[in-house]
Amino acid sequence: MDVMKKIKIPVTRIEGHGLITLRLGEDGEVAEAKFHVTEVRGFERFCRGRTIWEMPGITARICGICPVSHLLCSAKTGDAILAVRVPRAADKLRRLMNLGQFVQSHALSFFHLSSPDLLLGWDSDPARRNVFGLMEKHPELALEGIRLRAYGQKVIEALGGRKIHPAWAVPGGVRSPLSEEARDALAAGLPEAMRIIQDAISLYEEHLDDWAEEISTFGNFPSLFMSLVAEDGTWEHYGGRIRFVDADRNVVADGLDPASYQEYIGEQVEGWSYLKFPYYREAGYPEGLYRVGPLARLNCCDRMGTPLADEALGRFRALADGKAVTSSFHYHYARLIEILASLERIGRYLEDPEVLSPRVRAEAGINELEGVGVHEAPRGTLFHHYRVDEDGVIQWVNLIVSTGQNNLAMNRTVRQIAQRYLTGREITEGLLNRLEGGIRAYDPCLSCSVHAVGRMPLKVQLFDQGGALISERVRA
Amino acid sequence: MSFLDLDERLVELAQKVEVVYSPLVDIKEFPDGVDVTLVEGAVGNAEHLEMLREIRRKTKILVALGDCAVTGNVPSMRNPIPREDVLRAVYGEGEVPGLDEGEVPKLLPQALPLAMVVPVDGFIHGCPPPADRIWKFIRKLLSGEAPALAGEDLRFG
After folding, report:
1. What is the value of ipTM here, to two decimals?
2. Cα torsion angle, B132, B138, B143, B147, sign
3. pLDDT at A447 over 50
4. In angstroms, rounded to a whole number, what is the distance separating the alpha carbons of residues B64 and B67?
5. CB contact under 8 A, A274 and B5
6. Does A307 touch chain B (CB under 8 A)?
7. Under 8 Å CB-to-CB from A119, ≥6 apart: which residues?
8. pLDDT tens digits, one per residue of A229-279
9. Which residues from chain B sit within 8 angstroms of residue A269, using beta carbons?
10. Which CATH superfamily is domain B2-17+34-76+108-154 in?
11. Closest chain A residue to B40 measured between Cα atoms?
């Protein structure tokens, strides 16, 4: 007879809502672990009938944390449908906004959401293990995190006129140039932001030994990694071509055309999660597990392309003797290094007189009936794919969002942590916290990945083999 | 997210209120006897519905935060389309999550604003509401004034 057990856990402090279920085998060990995503909104369907001009504004509403990512990706898809090359200044300004987005989103992930685990400890009081508790214990760090995120938001606001959901990028370019005054204000704020991130990287590096246990179990396994890289292999966030590397950092595929993503990425649907499971076609499902986002981008690229970030990349690479860093715990490290790289690049753009050019938009009609837009969002590679009629009215939409591509990896991470920390038939506080921490390392924007509305917590349930609930944890 | 754009004001807020349940904290059960709850998002699935009713039972002042909660906004764009049609467009012809009761909460036929499900005591408009507007609303609450905005602060979008 089946005597299987299953556990459920809700995860908070991830943007969105997830549920973990664990199922025990006859030997009492974890036989199966699933990370369910419980939200869907249906953008792929209700965008049909809208025009490409509306799509940046509509798809930006997929997410409140990285609306800029969808805004820019949708505008790029529109560029492909207009069949235009956007003016150089517009290209630079869009990149500048995306870098601002990296700074604010990564700062939010690290300081507001994850640093309470890292600095207050996974076993500290859950009622205080949050950004408000951080304000009590480490007020300076909490305030610096707030200020760093605010700097990223200021970059977005300087370009788009508001911090969230700016209606600024459009097919063909952007609506408005950067003013000299706004440029100067951003330049004035840069030194403080640079200091904050360099201090944060030092802090992380000093604590590495304290987290050895978690580093070895939070999604620590060999896998493929995917990201965009520039033509010369440099770290990229907006253009470039797709590269896959393996755990030894051997290049598995390179120079792939982002617009042909369907040739190398498959999408599996599972009835137990609203989030689809993308995989590398050549390896099949689920063996074609690949990771995206900060860890993947640092593993894929040859160099960061700016001096301080390249120094940091050297220290990051040393963790794995030059091979790929395979513990998802180090998403945190990679995220901090990407903030540094983004700030250095923001500095370069602010010194470039072309960013003040008023020539920022190419006008054209509908010249292609299909378009794909791809770029790097903070959480990983983002794909928008539209088919339109002669008037530019949407007939069909596919979106492959960043978090979805980490779905297989997050599931595997949950299993690894459960196998390590589950003892007996009880969901202990320690297990719960680490399951959450393991998922949080990916910074999954679940509202984004399943185009969800609510932001609710995650729950863990433990079931026996027969499917009977034996333990549930929703932290009282 | 706009809430976080309160920036340094978050520190001031933390001194005046106790945040008992939020995406930012680790408490997973909604506590009893809560003074104020800001709820964002439209009500789109069975779990949202259950959660919202629980929040209403346990909260004195329930506030709809943002246009999705106030009007249904973008998520309600699916409302004229049959539920199965929406799910098939996303997941294809095979197994589809959310069509029936199962391991994920069932999708409701329509995405609803909060006030169509439970009584709502206050509304903060905007997509998203600017941080200054949220702050103005919170200050009114803290000083015991009626939780209502006026004029420019009633703008959508």
Report:
1. 0.86
2. positive
3. no
4. 8
5. no
6. no
7. A134, A137, A138, A141, A207
8. 999 999 999 999 999 999 999 999 999 999 999 999 999 999 888 889 999
9. 91-92, 94-97
10. NADH:ubiquinone oxidoreductase-like, 20kDa subunit (3.40.50.700)
11. A454
